[in-house]
From TrEMBL:
Species annotation: Medioppia subpectinata
Family, as annotated: Belongs to the short-chain dehydrogenases/reductases (SDR) family.
Gene Ontology terms, MF aspect: oxidoreductase activity
Keywords: Oxidoreductase
Protein name: Uncharacterized protein
Superkingdom of origin organism: Eukaryota
InterPro entries: NAD(P)-bd_dom_sf, Sc_DH/Rdtase_CS, SDR_fam
PANTHER family: EG:BACR7A4.14 PROTEIN-RELATED, ZGC:101858
Amino acid sequence: MSVTYNFAGKVALITGSSSGIGAATAILFAKSGANVVITGRNAERVSEVAKQCLDVSPDGSKALEVVADVTSDEDLQRLVDTTIKTFGKIDILVNNAGAVAGGAGLSDNNYINGFRQVLKMNLDSCAPNLSAYCMSKSALDMFTKCMAAELGPKGIRVNNVNPGAVKTNLPQAAGLSDEIAQTFYDMYGKLYPVGRYGLAQDIAHAIVFLASDESSFMTGTTLLADGGHLAANVAFNPANLKK
């Protein structure tokens, strides 16, 4: 059975929505009638996703394009100001933008710079190895609970989605080749109980559900959409990517 949502008249701002999970989420919101704000650092990809949103919108809802870098305080303020100026409000905020830097470990001379950049992208906007990535995402889990408690009395719900291995361009952005990236996904697909790796649309459906009235009694929740990653205690071994 296909689930449909009605976000007519709502405004959804999705960071990092020029590709991957963010793009799939924006398109699903648009398909459900929402006005969407598409943002990312690549103007061409932002425009491509905005066009896809307009193509699937059932009632001619808008797709606002804002080229911005969420690690820049000035860009973040401009993103919010432009959205408010255009739509007068923000009903739904999806903090999707994220990064994982590749390659370096503690002994690398560039470790600290890479570590700070990942934390800035993953935390300040809402690793040289996976430590910064994991730390920043764990912090977001607790941040979600704190914000849910603080903002609940104002009628604002705050939830979080923890995905498993989802096929996007993140490995390539971290410096991996297409071949190694596919090896990464295939490895997880064989280990996951569901028998496959995730797709951006899988996470988009989880996000849209949490933004809908159907989840109105849920706040401060971390929703697992991981193909059974944690249930099966699937371990990540970077050495497997070098074989």
